[in-house]
Design brief:
By secondary structure, this protein is an alpha+beta fold. It has a domain of about 100 residues: Nucleotidyltransferase, domain 5 (2-Layer Sandwich). It contains 6 helices and 4 strands, in the order H-H-H-E-E-E-H-H-E-H. Strands 3-2-1-4 form a 4-stranded mixed beta sheet. Helix 5 runs parallel beside helix 6. The longest helix has 20 residues. The chain is globular and about 40 Å long.
């Protein structure tokens, strides 16, 4: 085994010379930092959710943020039902002319979910940032929902 270094790619090549470098090993090498960030967010989410739950009077407004899209739901945790939802994947949002930024799209999603909630008679919610920083797109969703008339 003649290697130039001890990096994981070259070690994998020396272990599996006939197959080259397996995809699973490369994915583990490349995605290590992202996996750590996701685990840290889930840890924060778990800590937050201990103290936060949606009721009939004040359901929970939760936000999920992916790299490209944003999703918001209003959930009653007692009955386990999603009362209202909105996302940037919906035809209504996609039909609108393009947004200048993802933050602007998130603000629109906040307004949309606020309007839908007010239409169903929901005017008070508990905001669940889902382990994300209250900044950028997450803040834009909450600001949009406040503009639509939801009370936090």
């Amino acid at each position: 085994m003649n290697r130039c270094c001890v990096c994981a790619t070259h070690v994998a090549e020396s272990v599996y010379p006939e197959y080259g470098v397996p995809d699973t090993i490369l994915r583990g090498i490349m995605m290590g930092s992202l996996d750590f960030r996701k685990k840290a967010r889930l840890k924060r989410k778990k800590r937050i959710r201990k103290a936060l739950s949606g009721t009939d009077e004040r359901p929970r407004l939760t936000v999920f943020r992916s790299a490209r899209h944003i999703y918001a739901q209003i959930i009653n945790d007692i009955s386990g039902q999603t009362l209202v939802s909105a996302s940037s994947m919906e035809k209504v949002v996609k039909a609108r002319d393009g947004f200048d930024s993802k933050v602007e799209a998130a603000g629109h999603i906040g307004k949309l979910i606020g309007e839908r909630a007010m239409g169903k008679g929901i005017n008070k919610v508990v905001f669940d940032r889902n382990g994300y920083q209250y900044h950028g797109r997450v803040k834009a969703v909450s600001d949009g929902a406040r503009e639509a008339g939801l009370k936090f």
